[in-house]
Batch of 3 targets.
Target 1
Amino acid sequence: MPECSTWIRPEPHGIHVVPADAWIDPARPVERALVTHGHADHARGGHGHVFATPETLAIMGLRYGGAQHETPVAYGERVALQGGVFATYYPAGHVLGSAQILLEHAGDRVVVTGDYKRRADPTCLAFQPVPCDVFITEATFGLPVFRHPPIAEEIAKLTGALALHPDRCVLVGAYALGKAQRLIAELRAAGYTAPIWLHGAMERMCWLYEEHGVDLGELRLVAGAPKAALAGQIVVCPPSALNDRWSRRLPDPITAMASGWMRVRQRARQRNVELPLVISDHADWDELTATITEVNPSETWITHGREEALLRWCQLNQRRARALALVGYEDEDD
Amino acid sequence: MNRFAALIDALVYTRSRNGKLDLLAQYLRETPDPDRGWALAALTDGLDFPAVKASTIRALMAERVDEILWGLSRDYVGDTAETASLLWPEPPVPAGPPPTVAEVVETLSSATRGNAGPLLAGLLDRLDANGRYALLKLATGAMRIGISSRLAKVAFAQAFGVNVEEVEEYWHGQTAPYAALFQWAIGQAEPPRTDLLPLFRPFMLAHPLEDGTRLDLADYAAEWKWDGIRVQLVNVNGETRVYSRGGDDISAAFPEIAGSLPFPAVLDGELLVRGSHQGGEAGGAASFNALQQRLGRKVVSKKMLEDYPAFVRLYDVLIDGDEDLRQRPWSERRPRLEALQPRLNPSQYDLSEVISAPDWDALTEIRARARDEAIEGLMLKRRDSPYVAGRRTGLWYKWKRDPLTVDCVLMYAQRGSGKRSSFHSDFTFGCWNGDPDAGAELLPVGKAYFGFTDNELKWLDSWVRQHTTGRFGPVREVEKALVLEVAFDSVHLSKRHKSGLAMRFPRISRIRSDKPAHEADRIETLRALAT
């Protein structure tokens, strides 16, 4: 059994790398933070010194303004922290700039995945399995009912609904960082070339993606557009705006939502969704279990999500595992 | 099965009635027989496979999925069929092409307790997740997707451009997969025969009389509009049925009525309960509240029969013996009804009297004086009108008593659905349980989601947003500061509500933003109006 439990400690508000006096994705401001990706439940403002990929730093800069000190870490670059700890960032396939962090100390290798998925995503680099002793995995969709369908099927549902109702628009709720851009990029990949309309809250993140080389095609803002111009169009907004007064300016919108939770009918109905699109930036059950098998760590730690079921799976497969009780990681409408 | 599954899925996510109608009509038009007929039966609860139970599904899953993983999943999803549809281990290659609905029905009908599991498994292996969901829902007879039989009939009529009343009439004699009904609808066959079965005939209904309208009583006869439930009594071949307004067979709940029509006829009347309760005159009709004690029961105890004896106040005769009178004018049917009534036991049947009034003003006066709690208002029936299904302009009118009103304080608002999903459109309001200046509290007395104009709704919605004090999911609690004038048809004592009162047909009649909340009405004011 690895000895890492002495130098890497799960605490309620983050994972503490003790000899380096650094925290991974801490939920409150700390002196030294290693941040896996830009989602608000992982990347918070107010840290003294942030180590993250350049893309993640750019996203954090957009949201919080920069930190006092920033160290951009390229994928594959091995950074020496204090106390004899080395950190290497590997692509996690979750959103632009997302990373798993490999920590090495005293001969132990620990990988913290942050959030990840295994499906292809035109907006970020693919997840790369990294051999390790302890694998700290997310479990957002850690129930065997979650099996995400191929994204092409979901995109076809969206364009199909649009074709069926030329005088309505399809309003898609999608998380402003990652999901929205992936959805747009996948629509482009499927040959959808018409302008895609954005809620104002989406705008800056989309430009940031474009600056990082992700081509999203022609984007327009809904603000100020006449109602008639939006008939037969796709509009993307944050999930919180779906049933908000904002949506009254749209022509009889078909309410869609892009999220892994849409797999469960009741979850979709609770949100008044008419067109559920099962699109997720997290690993589904099959991806989680396949990844653990592939990485084949001697110990698996499971965090934020439905830990219990994945823990049970590890037991059934004779894998050493434990559930961490970290706080502050939300579902994020994902 | 895939088309049926797609229909089920679309229906689950479609909230508007018109949207559901379009989906259903399109499916019925485009799907071949007999699949569409079976689907229709499944959607309207017309299918039952006694060998397949929820426990059959659980047993299948227990063989395939770890018990703890199943339990965690089932808890999360909240529905056994849906959980199983998602967890089913799909064979790497489907075990065959997806079955048709007809094949599913055939297979499940032939199933026994012994082989239901393997048969179901064989079907599941040929479907994707949505198909499995539809199959399991169909197999266990629990669709619950908000399709009433009325909605299905309207969709059927829409699909084939036929009259919905005719659909209702012919539907009743048919069994799934309704081949004769579809043949008739597409113009390939005569309508199915209905005269030899105790079938429901669609009711004739009334339009509300608009304010200020005056009718000539030479053309219209007036009757009381009784506040019970509209029923149709059908006796054919020695068998009697009691049908409710929606065509549901409620004979079992009212055996004394069903057992006392001794000759072939189809009669229209109001089902009421004798009114020694609620202070009603002895032998007269009690309020709707008394009748409610008898509704919705599958079996009825002797005590119920004694405490709440039901009777029918007859309005009309549709068929007398083997003579269909529906095309005859009301003025001919009425004497036929009066002639037949003495052949019935007076403790179960009486006649709704025709009110004699010399002119409209006199009738207005009679209506204003009516305070019998079992009277909802007046009915005006054109003397030369045939008995036609549904609501036909100019033939029958209902002239309800003026509504009662009370000033209430808005307490909670809930977001609506569909078109109203961005508006708070369901309002719960209350009255004071004492002197508000001496620390009295508001108790909820009702909930209303109509009565206001679109502009008033916008105003209310923005008021709610600006005065929210608490949130409970889709419900907002608001500052107790806005007075709403609420109109309602009647109010009854009720043990179910904390205020002890229940309103019938409450609606928001005016927004009284001019009135301070402490001047709203008290519970006791409302209680004094209770019947």
Note: Chain B has three domains: 2-140, 204-400, 404-528.
Target 2
Amino acid sequence: MEKTKVYVGLGSCGIAAGAQDIYDHLRENTASDKLDLEVTSCVGMCYAEPIVEVVRGGERIRYGSVDKKFADRIIASLESGDLPEDHVVTTTPEGKEYLDRQVKIVLKNCGIINPESIDDYLSVNGYKALEKAVNEYEPAKIIEIMKESGLRGRGGAGFLTGQKWSFLAGAKGEKKFLVCNADEGDPGAFMDRSVLEGDPHKVLEGMLIASYATGAQEGVIYCRAEYPLAIKRLNKAIAEAKERNFLGDSILGTDFSFHVHVKEGAGAFVCGEETALMASIEGKRGMPRLRPPFPAESGIQQSPTNINNVETYANVPFIILNGPESYNKYSFKNSYGTKVFALAGKIKRGGLIEVPMGLSIKEIVEEIGGGTDSGRPVKAVQMGGPAGGCIPASMFDTPIDYDSINETGAIMGSGGLVVMDDKTCMVDVARYFLAFTQNESCGKCTFCRVGTKRMLEILTRITEGKGVPDDLDKLEELAHHVQKTSLCGLGQLAPNPVLTTLKYFREEYEAHIFDKKCPAGVCKPLITIQIITEKCTGCTACARVCPVSAISGEVKKPHEIDPEVCTRCGLCIETCNFDAIEVV
Amino acid sequence: MGLVNVKINGIDTKIEEGSTILQAATQVGFEVPTLCHSDNLEHFTSCFLCAVKVEGGRGNLVPSCATKVREGMSVTVESEEINESRRMALNLLLSDHCGDCLPPCEDACPASIDIRGFLALVRDEKELEAAKLIREKAPFPGALGRVCPRPCETACRRNRVEDSVSICYMKRYISDTELEELGEAQLPTCAPPTGKKVAIIGAGPAGMSAAYYLKLEGHEVTVFEAHEKSGGMMRYGIPYYRLTDQTLKDEFDAIERLGVEVRYNTVVGKDIMAKKLEADYDSIIIAIGAQGASSMRVEGEDSKGVYSGIDYLGKLAEGQEPDIGDNVVVVGGGNTAIDVARSAVRTGAKATILYRRTRAEMPASSFEIDEAIEEGVEIRFLAAPVKLEESGAGVKVSCIRMELGEPDASGRRRPVPVKGSEFEIEASAVISAIGQKVVPDGIIDTGVGLTRWGTVQTDPKTFMTDRPGIFACGDCQTGADIAVRAVGNGRRTAYSVNQYLNGEEVTGEPVLFNSTMGPLDQVSEELFRGIEKVDKVKMPVIETAKRVTTFQEIETGFSKERAREEAARCLECGCDAADNCKLRDYSTKYNADQQYFGGEIRSYQVDYSHEKIKMEINKCINCGACVRACAEIKGFNVLSYVGRGFTTRMTAPFGRSLVNTSCDGCGECVNVCPTAGIMFKKEYRNESKV
């Protein structure tokens, strides 16, 4: 009997959801002559992990939320031939909603191929773009194609990739460096990791084409050490590509040579900034420096250097293989192609999505993401990580393109998209993101090091109910100074979450300061948890879970919470079956 | 290399290609501030003080120390926006700068006397030098060294170890030593005569201090004094057992010896009109004090046997002995009340002080209250008179008990009468010492404005009244206050008058920015670790039994040995870099405010481990110049940036002490440090012993 091919999604997210156990279970409980068990990576449906795909007659049937019991049914079906019809995640209305609006260029192979197999990559036209490039095009032509494609840097700043390459190509210098920035550090962003874990060869191929176009001989992939699986798969991919002569000297029999290695970063957020990143590669402390000189003039070891983000490189093979028009047909205003987003936060279907430019935030949040997981109204999305901003639900018609997003005060950033419902306190959100940037400031510039600290102190006292009337003025004043007078993006953009929340949710700040209330019921010093006497049935469930015994009352009689003892942990609210406990 | 054309604040200039905006700005005469930049080092752009705006840019400010000029570039290097940004940068740096520029004693001294300096000179057995040093700020070391309520000692950081240094008495010791060795006070040489004439009304501490400093500048100074002797309230308000006639004579006569003319027994407004002075002199200083007694606002205040403390002390000073009988009630809680009571005791009377609050609120110096009690003065707290009546030969004082209520405007709890707690005291006399007020009669015709408190209105910094050329200082400007403030303000007024006479803009004595670690109780314990406790030297006094019978001075002064020991207790606070600190200079220039933000301050122990160099990270502003100097100039890499975020600091890697590095003490780091984060150790300081 023919072997059935079964893929288990072993990206970090899948593994975290238990996919490795499922993989082991399948392997241990199935005869090897029946099952061809394959590893793949994250397909982007994080909400449905662990995911197992069964290939039957050329068709792939994807099952989600697979536990061992369900895995046993899959094993049984291998014998019987009757595949289960439940747990399918792609063909259901939900799955369609999630997938139909997406256009997969970067993520095309993720969760489909085995990322640890170069043959798998080759089977999906892998390295065909490289072959086409070196065999059919002059380097200058490639840069032209890239410019025509309209691809802009996916790391956040959105600089035209083809133009950036042309700087390196035109730069004088014996040695030129090509860097892949894989120092993904935004809280809630995981697209680069997924691409590296799921399709490392594609990134290598993108770099190879860039190297050919620009004349760079040496490549460095700067990847944070917290991504061990990505690093492992990258190193394997590099070794395999060398073996097959896609990397190294005389690539594909030409005189084109390119060497690449992975440099592990120690996890400093600021090392995602290109000058800090280069300093780190050189073995120095990761601290940004003034530009100019730009990397294309003087980068690593003072040599001309080009730096692109993972997602940017991952777009390149498609553009070369299919032509710029196949890419720039997805366009909106000045933005072309697709953008990967990490959809996270209080969202029903969180995961990694790739959408064409021009889709609205509403379409992403409501349709692809299915709204909030709680069913509560969406309040805002935070875009662009800690350097980004909060866009309120009232502006969800904003289309996804660089310019439109910038107009809101947020930024496209690397593509983090955190969804918040009406139980999210925007002051607390601003405080959270600012605490992140303050901790990650390299400590060099006055405004970033001390300025963000003082801003954070103001925000903290507001959330603690100790805000004073001139706090908002002082906060805004300082925010503008930090924005205007910092050296690098980290400092310049750090005030964004504060400024956007102040812009769109000022009344929430004012409620904290003047009324000493947290309207979202989040900031503990500003809330009281109480039992609604009319609704309480006296079931005692809340009193039993209260960790500080703040709830008292007789059985079957309304209970009471002692506000002096209560720590506002909220366990009682979660426990109550009668909606009888409220935050005021 | 060619030249490029750039425009700096609208001024066209040519400068060599490759130059920075900072260089171009300097070339056309702008002083762009920078803390992190040094010409010997690669640019670093961390302080952002040098930020400027390039026309056509993104609207942000760029560091001029590192941004290269381009042909046709137009740059604004000074503007309101830029200055505000610089001020904000300084506010931020200062909010995390944990250090005292000035020693807290000097900062607390109303006359800004270099206390640390004179203590060091005494320790080093240079008392004559010490006397000169004090006179740079205050010409009355002997008098102040006897009567000053010593705000310096309250601020003294040594209080955190065991007790303050005996600063006040040290001035007396210095002055006594000088007189003993030289027979008179050492006086500086006056500048050549300027031909300008100044009239000063009042020969008290303020007027005579101003006279002294103006005379030194070469101006002709005439002082008009209503009394027959100089000294003002130091003579007529302080009994001789605290401040002797001889000391006053020694100190005030010295000023006349300098060439200041004092016209005694000349009452301005009566013997000579202020208008006349205006006509005859180039400038006038009003220093008439606050010599009127405030009213008790009690029924029967005008009764026979009721006196004011000021009058009583004034008469004693003039050698009279007013008849107050043998059982005196003194009303008030200040030093005057104590002085009156103790004087009364010396005339053989029993003295009872009525004070409406408790001892904790008493404005009088604590040690004087103790001495008064030792001498038999009775103090009845929480009691106030409500009515005075003549009663036989004396006065019947009807009183009421008080209790403390809510704090009033002064921050002290307001005394509230307790209903039904009335009681009576029979007294031979009642002397009220509840406050003094300015009696402006003699100077009213100058037309100077008065405040709602009846003091002369002046600019707080220049002491000039609303009439150009007419200044005011001392109690008539501050309201009744301590002598040392009058002395200090007299000097400051002289500074302004000198500017006025020289035809300069009258700006007043410059006040430099002063960083402070905060009030005594907020200073980190780290600072006092390892300091050995040494008892404060006590001032010897004559026995109490003898004291109460005489107006002889009761304190007898320090011996040489004890004084020098005491001087060595000084912790020498304040910063060695205070006179050579860019952070301080710019903070002064841009009017920075250390308290603007508040918030957390990094606090680390000072690293004294190295033989030559000390690192005080508390004062570091993270400019990284030391790290770069060590690496770029020396090639040693002793120092590095450690940590991230707010807690980032410059230090030897891996938390090492400086002594455990390859540092050879070359001092390249010290040379580039814009503040006092890293310094050479000073031999004379205590730190060499740590």
Note: Chain A has five domains: 4-99, 118-326, 332-421, 426-514, 528-583.
Target 3
Amino acid sequence: MKRKSIALCMAVCLCAGIFTGCGKDGESQETAQKMQNEQDKQEKEQPSVVSTVFNGELEHDVTIQVLENDTAVSKGYFAELIEAFNEEYAQYGIKAVDANMDQYLDLANDGPYGYGPDVLYQANDIIMQYAEGKHIYPLPAEKMECFEQIPEAAWAAYRIDLEGTAYTCGVPVNVQAPMLYYRKDLLPQDWENVWDENGNKIPDMAENWNAMYAYSVSRHAENSSQYGYMKSLFDVYFSSGFLFTYGGYIFGNNNTEPADIGFSAGEAEKGAWVLSQLASTMNEECIDDSITTNAYSKLADGTYFATITTPDMYSTFLEEMILAYEEEGLSKEEARAKAEENLVMTTLPALPESGDLTEEGASFLAAKSMGGINGYAVSAYTKHPNACLAFVEFATSYEMMVRRSELLGVAPARNDAADAVGGTSQLLYNNLEAGNIVLMPSIKEVSQIWTPGETFFIDLAKDAFRPEEEKKYTDLDAMKKGLEGVDQQIYDAIFTLK
Amino acid sequence: MRKKWNAGKILDTAITYVILLAVAFVFFFPCLWLILASFSKSGSIYSFDGFFPAQYSTASFVKLFTDTTMYNYPKWFMNTLLIAAGSCALGTFLTILTAYTMSRFSFRMRKPMMKTTMVLGMFPSFMGMTVVYLLMTQFGLINHLGGLILIYASGAPMGYLTQKGFFDTIPRSIDEAAKIDGATNFQIFTKINLPLSKPIIVYTALTSFTWPWSDFILPKLLLKEKNLYTVAVGLMSLDETEFARFAAGSVFIAVPIVILYFCLVKNMVNGIAEGAVKG
Amino acid sequence: MKEKWSRFILAVRDSSWKVKLSAAVMGGGQFLYGSYGKGISYFLLEIVIIAYMALRGVKDIQGFFTLGTQKGDAWLGTVGDNSVIMLLMGIFAWIVLAAFLYLYQLNLKDAYHTQKIIENGKRPLSFREELAQLLDKKFYITVLILPVLGVCVFNVLPIVFMILIAFTNYGGDIVPPELVDWVGVANFEKLIALSQFAPTFFKILGWNLLWAVVSTVLNYFLGLGLALLLDKECVKGKAFWRAFPVLAYAIPGFITLLAFKFMFSYGGPINQIITAGGNTAIGFLDLDAKWMARGIGVLVNCWISVPSIMLLATGHLSNRDMSLYEAARIDGAGRWKQFQKLTMPFMLFATTPVLLSQFIGNFNNFGIFYFLRGGLYVDGYFLASDTDLLINWLYNLSIDNNYYCIGAAISLVIFMITSLISLIIYVKSPSYREEDTFQ
């Protein structure tokens, strides 16, 4: 029996060897052939892929499945959008329906087997990964109504260069970047005199981190159960912006070169220092994800003064605050009005050039942050590309973008819509134009940055609560070393087995 | 002498109950925490006084079952129930039959089969998930609850060694007696061994019912439409702020399993060894 | 071997032309000998298989070697070859081919057997009688067909597939629509390059073994102990007491893990109580909490696994021969002696496979530390944390990067080690060697 199985093993191994042999032989010829074929095809068809697919002839009597994100569905925006679209296109018999699938669904996995949606709304890094595998169609962006209104910076996030031709694979809908949330009613009574040095009616805490730090310290000193700024530091999405401000980056060459990792580049260690100073004003909850999940209710009950997260969470904060005010005995309308008045969402405060949050009269740098641009894309596995394009056109029209922003509190990518909505959307939009929003890389390797980054930030946060003699990050050099370690780990994770 | 023995017995009983209480506490406390959390009024775990909510209400349960536009819990629940019941019935049937056969019949392929299944069970299973997905796309069983039942039920016999161990302890003399009376192998199985193996059937049924309830990976892979989700997948798709709903949903998962347990509990123990043919 | 061969030659010479017809047309011999039902069945089977082979089998086997030649391009609307599907269908075709050869050999043997029966002047079994046998003497065939088929499709096929994947370049950028190719042992060569991380490997392996042994022993004995405790005569309301562990069992594992993670987190209830008492919060599961996190992992795993072992043990315990205990008691054996000499051997006999599968399950327990303490790379480890098991490390190194082929190669190596160990233990165990000890 035993001998038999050994023999079998050997036979299998042998066979495997043979397969490789013939695989290679056949392969070289075939690849050559294939290349030839493909080149021919490209020369003939490639420039016109977009126009052959989107030939402008609307398919009639079809149903297209649209995947939206959960917030858009739960706030009722998506139902409105579909209804409006279906009314408009009833004459062609085109009907859009909710694809009713997971908002993070992986088109590259499901699409080829025919299980994906026709139109999908996802973040730019995800969509562009699909584009690399040609799972979504390139769009005739220049011909779309929204083209002029959306800034070049946003379009750039959806541009890809395949075999020498540039394609646009998605339509930007809204800009996502970390935003500062704080409560006006928790500001000190006399803030207009004491905490508004430049007298612009915006409290300094919302303008620079030094003031935020000072206020956090004083608020906690006043009452030890209260805190100022609170945030779980482990989250790379939010914490890495501090590094970027001082010269750090993710991947080199505009986030396309995975071998060049730059978390420690420039003076990124100053960003780490800022984070560690901020951590010292918080409590141990900043080490794990506790604050991320409890910020909603703790901001509402007044334990925290400020936090940062993405703009689409605005409505969640608002609802928590309304509940809190209702507890205090206000009526529903009063509570809503008061919450809307007091909850402020704005762009991130500026960082001191020196990285020292206690410095007097510091000069400031505009804070950079990691961000993304969510948008629509058309699946390459759809049977009705023109109907899909019509839907995307409709969904990115001025009216729908404004409505989206009203209902969801997100910042529209359209210039005119951002103007109409005003406020923070405009600020965020300006930040995008000024290059302060570092878009998430759209290469696969980005999945390896999270764990090394998280570990470092956890370590940094933990350090603030270690006894003096056990502290690891006591000076900028130690922080620099730590960040270099992060770079090395990311590099190892990507290339060890490549 | 007699008195002392009595005292020892009382002490023994007392200690037994103390341990039982401790065990019950250890197992029940986290469950209780989850149950009470699901009745929390604020819907957030961070407004608790220590372990338990400050105020209670049934709002999250009402929301769980009535607010179905985003998270259709009743639908998920029925899906899971269907899958669990299907794979429980089919899986138990196949497993018991396999185990019985491997325990009672001797044929050429038996020992190699035993060794093979032993070894097969050791392959790190998450690597195989891609393949299961590919297979199901080829069978056209993506987005079909039946596809899941098929996989669970066919996977179940892999664990037959547990049940075989049980059958190995049922005296063979019972079979032989029946054989002399002219019963066929089929009759011996249905009329004699099956009634004797209630405890292991209960165990098998419980485990194969529970598996689909708690499995997350397979349904996530094979069910793309939200209406077809199972409870586990649905709960994982909840927004992070929906804690009370999550707790309520998790607590409610346990209900059918506990009901099933109480239905089956009287069959958990049988006393064959005392009666039957022994000796 | 030689003897077998000569027997075969003899049979070939000895067989009638009718049997030889069976070699060309399956079932032909049986049909001519008067077993019409069987003859026709064999013939139909042959037709079905040949039809499958002609329609797609041959193409599938070809595809198995080439793994696709035409790359698909969704933009141009070209439907290309999907290498992975081709590999899968290729394996399937091989299986069908093997089944065909087996049937073919069965058919020849059967025809020859029929000839012998007729030559001896006996009557071969009628088709109906043969079918009836399936419910009696060959009951096992009837019973095992479905499970074996199911296991083959959903367990064996994936495993074969994964093993073959280890010899391809599938993964990373090379996923459909890109074409996958056979690369021989290149992936294993890369693994040798990994040997520079041997320190991490041995550190993780050490902890992994410790974890598997401790968890298995703890789970097993706590489960058994609980079952014995509930089996005591003095316990009233057994169903009620047993319901608590069942409740724990009824809550899905991942929910339990998330709940425990929350309880032990900095913002969780335990730390709330600690800080309310004026102490500093404890990082039960954080970066520096090596042994504490490991201990919590073991305990949480107990909480999850003990109930099912208890249920199983309860069933088995009721199968004990109580008269033996009676006798032991008369001989003056104490409770510990009874446990040692009667209960333990009985339970070990009945549950060795369970113990083994528990051990392997714990050895490969991916979920527990992934949920409790995921997302950390600790100093002194290469891309792993000090609570990670080999399977978590494997995940970090390969699956997380989509390097399926490397992942398959690593799992193959791990699989060979674990399966060899457990196979040896199993084959040496009483529940394999002396299956009738307790009958």
Note: DSSP finds 19 helices and no strands in chain C.
